[in-house]
Amino acid sequence: MVKINSIDISPPLINSSCAWSSTLEHLEELYASPYTGGVTTRTATLDGFQEDSSHTVTFAKDSHSSCNSYGYSPHPLREYLAWVPTLMASPPPANAPHPHKPIIISIAASTPATLTTMLSSIQILRASLGDNYGARPARIAVELNTSCPNIPGISPSGYEFKRLLPLLRVLKSAFDKDETLTIGLKLPPFVVKEQFTAVIEGVRELLKPMTPTVETRRLPIPLPGRRAPVAPPAPVAPHGREKCPIAFFTCVNTLGNAMYFPDQVHFDTSDLANPPAPRDASCDPNYALPTPLGGMAGEALHPLALGNVYTFAQLLHHKGVSQPIPMLPLPLSTKKSAKSGITPPPPSEGENEFDSDDDGSGASTPSGGRSGSPSPDNSRNGQEKDDPLKDIVIIGVGGVTSHAALQRMHKAGAQVVAAATLLGKLGVKAFEVLSTPQEVNDLAEKK
What we know:
Elements lengths: L1 E3 L2 E3 L3 E3 L8 H9 L6 E2 L16 E3 L5 E4 L8 H12 L14 E5 L4 H18 L10 E6 L15 H17 L4 E6 L5 H13 L42 E4 L3 E4 L35 E5 L3 H15 L62 H8 L6 E5 L5 H10 L3 E4 L1 H6 L2 H7 L2 H9 L1
Parallel strand pairs: 3-14, 4-7, 7-8, 8-9, 9-10, 10-13, 13-14
Antiparallel strand pairs: 1-2, 5-6, 6-12, 11-12
Helix pairs in contact: 2-3, 3-4, 4-5, 6-8
């Protein structure tokens, strides 16, 4: 089980916001699967996105890759808010490790006022369902999508993180009023260090404390010929370890400005669980997509997605980007699997699996601990333990099309893994495939 602020995800495998989580039927199928630990809605706007025949997807011939021109959901936020109670009232899936799955409502807004309205609507729903009670795990979270590459005339705000600050302040304000509200950011794929550090610095801006509360003291009026009394220092309200309002990063979204030609893709989509709508006769036949550019996803995106997850894991845990991180325990199992033969390495007693193993010498013990005597300077370790950004959970997305790819995401640093392209091709069965070692899937296919 992975805890993200007030929600629990078990197993740590979910869908990412995508075209195949658009409708109530989609969401019910995802919720009913015992292989998903949570459900993410397609990204909703306040009034819905105008979708037409130019918004579609195409799948590659030679790999589990895709390219899509989808924008946001055509269903407005109010429809998702009406569907959430229906999902929550559904009976838990058979053999589900966690009976009450959380629902991540993915949203997008371009102005603080719109985002404030959307968050208020979500919070009203949560209050009506008792989801902000705090004594038990919550079941509703929010993801702000900063990264859709297919919105005409609007580049993804995640690439210009300072542009996001007004929206982030709205998120912080909502969190300050209710710390049971679990908030995440869906990020675009980054390629240079400055893009990653801009995210970290932008989120850290939200941690700056407000002006400390100072007790106001009334002083007596001085008598003639006497000095005014000097007030003793006014006490300042103490600040404890501040909690980060951002609880998770979903990384990555699709990579924009990608293109397929017709000879690279399948046009016979009859074998797909979620076939796209037939091509409009007005579409240019020289390109696979009507647009013809779109967002790249699936296996073609996988190496870049792994690199993004790895880099954020490094930065969130104060490692820089040059040192390898120790292998994280794989959350899908805590015991050796007879099928996969994989035993997640438990951390040593008193050891934090995220602590850096680098002592500046490049030497390490076989178990990943430091060699030699510990450094007398513990200020850095203290800073790590007190840094609220260390609590941010990474949801790894991008090219998760096999059990091996899922394992790679965990090794790179993702605590939760999400998939979309394979969902588009196989339907909800994709999550059973991802949860099963490849040799078992191969054997099942032979039978």
